From TrEMBL:
One Pfam family matching this protein: FAD-oxidase_C
Gene3D superfamilies recorded: 3.30.465.10, 3.30.70.2190, 3.30.70.2740, Vanillyl-alcohol Oxidase, Chain A, domain 4
Assembly and oligomerization: Homodimer.
Lineage: Bacteria, Pseudomonadati, Pseudomonadota, Gammaproteobacteria, Cellvibrionales
PROSITE patterns (UniProt xref): FAD_PCMH
Name of protein: D-2-hydroxyglutarate dehydrogenase
Length: 468
């Protein structure tokens, strides 16, 4: 693999011949912008940024990279939190912004074909215009791209009902590390003709090949979504609330956040607290209010939780605007705390083990970070919690990261004990690869490396991500 951060004139000219003169950028601003994601750990140092518009152009770029053994990094909305889209070692960044077309909508199959650069919100709006719904949703839906969502198997706030991105990918078109084009699954609902290679590329972070096109499934629009925000005195009670509501209702979301998270959001945004009573934690439930007795049932379950001491107070949305404002209390957390350069851990275990899991982690964190502010939130309905450690203003970033990395190993030992994941939905990228053995066996990792060799024999596709 070339270590040169400056490409030869011949390679640059070939790239311009492939994508066009104005679709190759070398200026410092573009190299910085497209060479990184939302992480701030690695300095971006790409050698060039290219903007293909067609599958054939992507294929030509990959073949050129094979010929000259040049590393490629895919770039979508660059909203990743694991360093998966960071180009820190002179790689060529393949940015998919120009591949942003939606086509071939099929109302019978409820499917649509998206190029890799289609923005998540763009697909959501398209589905809405057809009277349908694309349910994978998260705070970065206005800038994340479908190719990146597939590469990281993005989850978000509605996994409890709709699952992760994987559930909505009916077919894929891939350019492999060898420069081959694969059409996988052809949108079929049933296809047991051998291995489903499509699933290998979902969540592979562009290390096996680049997603260039996807057939995405859509579903019916939910009706009259309504949210409840409940104040909960202790974390174990959140699980009691979840069990109580899930026993009698189908939820579309079940989120949680801490009082410290709420304080940050309310202080730094034009938002009100949901109610005057302060609680250690808050649960946000969402459901379809489709029948006259649905709201009555929700209130009955709320009152049951209050009687049991699991809930201190609560509020229910009565309009679309109220629904949006309640959701902002949860969805604005990441953006609000970004000013403190948070050290993020994206952890999961099975739902039933979450209380003990979180309690053990919190004990370790409080013991070793007595002077650091800790922000908890997450998709508790699917066992996913986000631990955010905020950097004190006066502390050097490198020292802060060193201290966090040291304690992370103890946290991941707890993850391993609970048979959980060191990366529930953000991917592995550069930031989590040294911790992969806490979630995957040595045999699994060895097999992953063999799969990588099959699809990317020269190791040019997003090298250094997931594992070395």
């Amino acid at each position: 693999m070339s270590d040169q951060f400056t490409l030869s004139a011949a390679v640059l000219q070939t790239l311009r011949d492939i994508v066009g003169e104005d679709k190759v950028r070398l200026d410092a601003e573009s190299l910085d912008t497209y060479g990184k994601d939302w992480t701030k750990v690695h300095v971006p140092k790409p050698s060039a940024i290219v903007f293909p518009k067609t599958v054939e152009q992507v294929q030509a770029i990959v073949r050129l990279a094979n010929e000259h053994e040049l590393a490629l990094v895919p770039s979508g909305g660059r909203t990743g939190l694991s360093g998966g889209a960071v180009a820190a070692y002179g790689e060529i960044v393949v940015a998919f912004d120009a591949m942003n077309q939606i086509s071939d909508f099929n109302p019978v199959d409820r499917s649509v074909v998206c190029q890799a650069g289609v923005i998540t919100e763009q697909l959501q709006q398209f589905a809405q215009e057809q009277g349908l719904f694309y349910p994978v949703d998260f705070a970065s839906s206005g800038s994340s791209q479908i190719g990146g969502n597939i590469g990281t198997n993005a989850g978000g706030i509605k996994v409890i009902k709709y699952g992760m991105t994987r559930e909505w990918v009916a077919g894929l078109k891939i350019v492999t590390g060898s420069g081959d084009i694969l059409d996988l699954n052809n949108g079929l609902a049933k296809n047991n003709a051998g291995y489903d290679l499509r699933q290998l590329f979902i969540g592979a972070e562009g290390t096996l090949g680049f997603v260039v096109e996807a057939t995405m499934r859509l579903t019916r629009q939910p009706s009259n979504l309504t949210a409840l925000v409940l104040g909960v005195p202790e974390f174990s009670a959140i699980m009691d609330v979840l069990n109580t509501f899930q026993s009698d209702m189908d939820l579309t979301a079940f989120e949680f956040f801490s009082e410290k998270a709420l304080e940050k959001v309310v202080t730094h945004n034009d938002l009100r607290r949901p109610f005057e009573t302060k609680a250690e934690y808050y649960a946000l439930l969402e459901f379809e209010n489709t029948h006259e007795d649905t709201e009555s049932l929700a209130m009955t379950l709320f009152e049951r939780c209050v009687e049991e001491g699991w809930v201190l107070d609560g509020t229910m949305s009565q309009s679309i605007d109220q629904l949006k404002n309640l959701w902002r209390l949860r969805e604005d957390i990441s953006e609000t705390i970004s000013q403190w350069t948070p050290y993020k851990n994206d952890l999961s275990t099975v739902v039933s083990r979450v209380p003990g899991f979180l309690q053990e982690i919190e004990t370790i964190v409080n013991k070793n970070y007595p002077d650091f502010e800790i922000i908890w939130f997450g998709h508790i309905g699917d066992g996913n919690v986000h631990l955010n450690i905020l950097k004190p203003d006066e502390l050097d970033k490198e020292i802060f990261l060193e201290q966090c990395n040291r304690v992370s190993r103890w946290i991941f030992e707890i993850v391993e004990k609970y048979r959980g994941s060191v990366s529930a939905e953000h991917g592995v990228g550069l930031l989590k690869k040294s911790y992969l053995p806490y979630s995957r066996s040595h045999t699994e990792i060895a097999l992953m490396k063999q799969v990588k060799q099959v699809f990317d024999p020269k190791g040019i596709m997003n090298p250094g991500k997931i594992f070395d």
